[in-house]
Amino acid sequence: MTSIGIAATQISISTIIPLLIAINDRDYLQFKELERTFVAQNNIEVWQDVFNFRILPALDQQSKKWLLEAWCAEGIVSVKDLV
């Protein structure tokens, strides 16, 4: 396991739950704010690992669809451009 993978497994569930709640509430602005905060506290690589292997697999199909539609409606912008 890489150091990024190890760092991603060290992220507390209490950090992930608010992201899941924002998705469940369909609150894209809150999700983006939590994402920015996460990246600022950790780094983009850890965010990618946490999102791809911990958050995304936990989502139901409707939530995945909503998140994709929200991203596309905004225009896909790299988190690196936001930090």
- What number is the mean pLDDT? 87
- Could you give a short account of the major beta sheet? none
First-last Cα distance: 27 Å
Find the count of extended strands (DSSP E, 2+ residues).
0
What is the gyration radius calculated from CA atoms? 12 Å
Apparent shape:
globular
Number of helices: 6
Strand content: under 5%
The computed structural class is mainly alpha
What does it look like?
This protein is 76% helix and 0% strand. The longest helix is centred in the middle third of the chain and has 14 residues. It is an all-alpha fold and 83 residues long. Helix 1 crosses helix 4, helix 2 runs antiparallel to helix 3 and helix 3 crosses helix 4. The protein is globular and about 35 Å long.
SSE diagram, text form:
Elements: H1 3-9, H2 13-24, H3 28-41, H4 44-55, H5 61-74, H6 79-82
Helix pairs in contact: 1-4, 2-3, 3-4
Quick synopsis:
With about 80 residues, the protein is mainly alpha-helical.
Jot down its keywords.
single chain; 83 residues; mainly alpha; globular
